[in-house]
Amino acid sequence: MTRTGRARNLLDHSEMPEIQINPGDARHYHIGDGQLLELRSPRGRMCGRALVSAAQKPGELFAPIHWSETLAQDARVSALAGPATDPHSGQPEFKQLPVQLSPLPVHSYATLLCHEETAAPMQQWLARQEKTGALVPRAL
Question: What 3 state SS string does the chain have?
Fold first, then answer.
């Protein structure tokens, strides 16, 4: 978050981490728009909400890199990446990263609105968003 965490437009563009998927791939994997997904690689795991989009190339997924553990549980794309990094920026290799995609089963969705930052109740997945100065945990 040393670069992207300072870019307000990146933080405001979506309320939760998203994984963009082509409509044909979504049909193949039985994934609906807005459904919670899990990506796994040999290195780790990432969760996010499906964003079905014809703009996404078939056979490829896209997930923004600016989500961190402070904003959303298991939302770091870097958790999937291997140890190879660019020697100048330290940026991990994200452009060609094989992953296993699966829907993340949830029993229910809930939104918890708080006037001030608070510990979230037990949940399977959590994303936070800032609204008028307060953090809003979204337990899914």
Answer: CCCHHHCHHHHHCCCCCEEEECHHHHHHCCCCCCCEEEEECCCCEEEEEEEECCCCCCCCEECCCCCCCCCECCCCHHHCCCCCECCCCCCECCCCCCCEEEECCCCCCCCCCCCCCCCCCCCCCEEEEEECCEEEEEEC
pTM of the model: 0.69
Of the ranges 10-14, 68-72, 98-102, which one carries the lowest mean pLDDT score? 10-14
**Of 83, 85, 68, nearest to 10 (Cα)?**
68
Q: Are strands 45-52 and 18-21 parallel, antiparallel or unpaired?
A: parallel
Residue 114: what pLDDT? 66
